[in-house]
Design a protein that fits this description.
This protein is of the alpha/beta class. The protein contains 22 helices and 18 strands. Strand 5, helix 6 and strand 6 form a beta-alpha-beta unit.
Length: 558
Amino acid sequence: MPSGAELFVEAVARLGIDTIFTLVGDHLNEVLAVAARRGIRILDMRHESGVTHAADAWARIHRKPALSLVTGGPGHTNSLTGVATANLVGSPLIAVSGSRPSTLAGRQAFQDIDQVAMARPVVKWAAEVPDAAQIPSYLERAYAQADSGRKGAVHLTIPVDLFTASAGGTGFPTWPPLDRPKGLCHSGDIHRAIALLRAAERPILIAGSGIWWSHAEDALRRFIELTQIPLYTITMGRGTVSDDHPLVMGYADPALNYAVHTAFREADLFLVVGKRIDYRLAMGGPRLFPPEARFIQIDIHPQELGLNRQLDAAICADARLALEALASAAGPQPWPPGPGGTPWLERLRALRRDWEATLALAASDTALPMHPAALCHELSQALPRDVLYSWDGGDFVHWGRALLPAREPGGWLRLGPLGAIGSSLPNALALQLAHPRRPVAVITGDGALGFYIAEMDTAVRHKLPIVVIVGNDAGWGLERELQSFASGGATVACELQSTPYDAIMKAFGGGGETVERIEQVRPAVERAFASGVPYCLNVKIRGVRSPFTEWQIAGKKK
């Protein structure tokens, strides 16, 4: 009879999962040995939260469930930040934790904690497998739960003795797979939306992660080209239609694209596709949107429709199917310019040019240490055009998000609503593993880099030639700016050492160098990507309040 570990690996392979993100522990030895013999790729990492962040990124990149496998006790508790991140961002992560033997539950065994109860508040579904024979059915259930409706994280605890036990029965799932409806569009909703769009003089389309998850990139591009509706993108919608497209007006984030402050207030209709009307969109409130503007929202998750903003039309559907239905209802011929027409597009382009000129003015600062805008402007010229970004949080990073264009679908990985800074490094490992011949850049601050800095070792061991660009201003820049504003200049617990992070990458076996002047940036970037090894550019910058932080402070003043 097969062991529980063999059933686990067989079920994983049958579900189409070919990579396991893990950190070894004695609860996992049997199952990892079987996985290695089976030829499943194992990315072993240095911290369990890094493991779940990387698996979350893998799920986002491939748009299907990914698997993390960590040991129980502290391995499980360490993993929960990455699990919660995945669930909030709608990423189908299957987070499996080993545990004490099932026969020792509730008997003060070593590392015995209620892992399922700890995970349940931050996942869609959680369970402990009761016996070895049911491991495949529980994995099938976990996969279906993670991948159905609005995707999200799930958790399984599997006691160590179940992996080593012989399992009777066939090992095939006993639960039928959950239905995974795509959400077909109601024709009445579609026709109402089209009528609203035709009547609008100043419409705007905001596209979010639902575009990515539903493979709607082409449908979105065709729809805006048919209707001539200007597009702003956000979250994983960034790059699904390139910022270079003449109908794309850039970031929909008001904290990073000040052009939207005026553009949104002047618009009379918003079509929001695959994006929650949440904190990033000012909760749909008057700080960003005019009260009289019409709203159409498309989301696969019915609870999102009208949550923070009254809607004039609501379409509960998969984003791709909805956009295709809207395009069909819009007719085969491109829409002629309406009352707003070309003047509206030109107005939005002018607002975008004005904001870009403001950023360019900041980037023209030549004083030392480098202004972060000057560095990011130089990066926009130096980075490969097809670079894939793994973004962190923090003041320096927000300059980059404001200045650098999004051109590649799936190439703009962000932290998500939990804002777990530091995760850009493990996210980048998954991004590089998925795209071995593509350039991958980590844009991070010195504070954030410290969280998972040992994953530099993972990058070297697994030959993942990411380029880590760290803006080093020797401090927690965003908090330093917020505290300084609130206190009139005083800060607490915001200062760090000006550490040579390139030396740390070199010590792990990669490459790196310190960059202090703007003329050094381009040749350093070229050396980094040509090196073929994980590389760290430790860039000395000045702490300067970013547009994101200015937006935060403006909100506090009100």
